[in-house]
Amino acid sequence: MNIGLPKEVKDNEYRVGLVPAGVHALGEDGHTVLVEKGAGLGSGFSDEEYAIAGAQIVESADDLFARSDMVVKVKEPIEEEYPRLREGQILSSYLHLAPLPELTEVLLVKKVIGVAYETIRNEGGSLPLLTPMSEVAGRMSITVGSHYLQKPEGGRGVLLGGAPGVRPAFVLIIGGGTVGINAAKMARGLGAQVCILDVEVDRLRVIDDLFLGQIETLISNTYNIAQLIKGADLVIGAVLIPGANTPKLITREMISSMQPGSVIVDVAVDQGGCCETTRPTTHSEPVYTVDGVVHYCVTNMPGAMPRTSTFALTNATVPYIRKIAGLGMKDAIRDNPLLKDGVNVYKGHVTFKPVADSQNLPYRDLDELL
Predict the structure, then answer these.
(1) pTM for this structure?
(2) Which of 96, 233, 266, 341 is catalytic?
(3) Domains along the chain with CATH numbers
(4) Which end of the chain is less enclosed by CB atoms within 10 A, N or C?
(5) Is 147 a catalytic residue?
(6) pLDDT in tens, 26-43
């Protein structure tokens, strides 16, 4: 199989879909890997390193897409990439289709096989390909939140850990999954007062044990969010319903009740965000202010830490890419039925129900199509 590794073109996206070691492994499997010139530079990998690993360096993205049976990306295609997609091509990346009807339509019209990293589950029910980026984004949420709490950045001028004789900042984390726990680790490590909200009591028990009771845990509901958000210096949106639009748990009224200069980092923005005032931003223009509250809603947060993120990403994705490339999509799913949830679109059909429901599109069971 010809496997293409294009350069990411999303705003300030420096990650790359494969490290040279992954290219080498695919070459050992008998595949041809095409790497667009300069694709790995943002993550610190030269064209020479890819060539030594066995890749063919391709001058243009148009040529790469045209020659590739499977395209391995990090982020979903953007408008300039749409014409390059072709029928039957396998596209593997984070797709986050639920809030992106235009991209969904393009993939359907082009009859692309869209494999979304964020919806593949393992035997334990967790999301092995989303987890590494959630870990990075969760940790980053505290560092960027702390930055924008600085007065010159529009924040309240509050130091997360406080100072002797001065209370620490209050960090409210909505969602106790991978993002929430990693955010809590960072915030607690910096000395902040931390509270995590989640809808599952059993999850809160796990979190309480993990942090030895040093952070507050509460059930997530409208009342608790509305009460706690008034005193929060930093709010982390860490809500996830895999593949579906994120519910708007933070209302505009709640935003209006917050202290001026407080900060919201909505990590859930990829799936639409958990705040009514959320709108996608970029690393070039990462923040905006609503009712005096600073909003950070960058859709590719880990792209700012590409070296760490690319290694974390490819450690998880390469085994799946090798299986799909080696067996083809149909046989790969037969060999590992859990891959089925990753196929969000298949040759003109929506095959992941949360995406179909989010956009009111017809749903087809992938088993019927295979």
Answers:
(1) 0.93
(2) 96
(3) 2-112+308-369 (3.40.50.720), 131-304 (3.40.50.720)
(4) C
(5) no
(6) 999 999 999 999 999 999
